[in-house]
């Protein structure tokens, strides 16, 4: 792994929080992700399932975590199953976790080779009444591929039909949404790497540069700072491309006078950052571009103040809509009649700002979190309003990542990344 070693105490703490929520005499099982094939003998780069990483720190394929806090024997209470490594694997694939190294990473003393999983599970199931299965219930999830977890659940139900079933996901939704201090520090590192990327490209962007060249500059800076790369597919959208919310082609020329919308973030140790900035290709905003830019910035700043303990996600977005409506009226994009005659299900401001303002952030870019429960300290949210004007050939989005505090304004993990129009212009014109 490129990232520095993480203190195993984080994963021990996470396991303790999870097992405290389990029903008596129950076992929970978590599988790693598959390595997905492309064709022939090619595969996609491996990305670990965030749940097993959150609970163990194990960051390799063919891993299984078993938690059984009420087991009659200590060695069955926490078990990490790993593919047995050997000299051949080390030569062809690189170093894998040994039993000793797995303990150093995870804090789990009972490490068993994967070939003994079914035998061990048979003993465990003789003692347990209930199993927690790990289904994906994220509100944005849309998965067509059968996962390693899916295959395990199917096999387990056929093999042990007499046991009761519970779901681990509701527990994880709550636990993962509230970050430990070590997690916030890892996310700060991801944001700091993103800052290095944005400062690099502010001295690089000019008329004639291709969007993919800018993407390459980000990738270079991220990788040289111990990131695996982008936390999500980057958006490098010049001119009218910014009005396509998930534009990812990144294959057009940046032209003089256009704006460039950047939605990029580095990952670090599997934790995400999520940044949006909009900059002028020629190094200077026009008067109109600056007016819209400052309106978006004002909405972002006012929205950030609303992210406090007790806030409900749905009500928060209603309030942000009111702030955005005021700014759109000031820009002449809406008039009073538009607002008076709006459809409550799709308010007038949605014509220019059609997406949400915030989402949970963490091990996933759209991280776990139950949106119907009040916000809590140490939850991390994005704040990302935008105004998109196809008729004028540009769109503007600004986004920071913030940590909710016990009192006062959220803590901005991207506080050092330039965002004021004047500072962006200054940095772009230093050379």
Blueprint of the fold:
Elements: H1 9-19, E1 26-31, H2 50-56, E2 64-67, E3 78-82, H3 87-92, H4 99-106, E4 110-113, H5 117-127, E5 130-133, H6 148-159, E6 164-167, H7 169-177, H8 181-202, H9 211-223, E7 235-238, E8 259-264, E9 267-268, E10 271-272, E11 275-280, H10 287-305, H11 313-330, H12 336-340, E12 380-383, E13 386-389, E14 394-397, E15 400-403, E16 411-412, H13 421-428
Parallel strand pairs: 1-5, 3-4, 5-6
Antiparallel strand pairs: 1-2, 2-3, 7-8, 8-11, 9-10, 12-15, 13-14, 15-16
Strand content: 15-25%
Largest sheet: 6 strands, mixed
Shape: globular
Number of strands: 16
Structural class: alpha+beta
Number of helices: 13
Rounded to the nearest angstrom, the distance between the terminal CA atoms is 37 Å
Radius of gyration: 24 Å
Overall pLDDT score: 96
Parts with pLDDT < 50 across at least 5 consecutive residues: none
Tell me the helix content. Answer: 25-40%
In N-to-C order, the SSE pattern is HEHEEHHEHEHEHHHEEEEEHHHEEEEEH
Largest sheet strand order: 4-3-2-1-5-6
Account of the protein in words:
- With 431 residues, the chain is of the alpha+beta class.
- Helix content is 35%, strand content 15%.
- It has 13 helices and 16 strands.
- It has helices at 9-19, 50-56, 87-92, 99-106, 117-127, 148-159, 169-177, 181-202, 211-223, 287-305, 313-330, 336-340, 421-428, and strands spanning 26-31, 64-67, 78-82, 110-113, 130-133, 164-167, 235-238, 259-264, 267-268, 271-272, 275-280, 380-383, 386-389, 394-397, 400-403, 411-412.
- It has a 6-stranded mixed beta sheet, sandwiched between helices. It has a 3-stranded antiparallel beta sheet with strand order 7-8-11. A 3-stranded antiparallel beta sheet has the order 12-15-16, covered by helices on one side.
- Strand 15 and strand 16 (411-412) form a beta hairpin.
- Helix 10 (287-305) packs antiparallel against helix 11.
- The radius of gyration is 24 Å and the shape is globular.
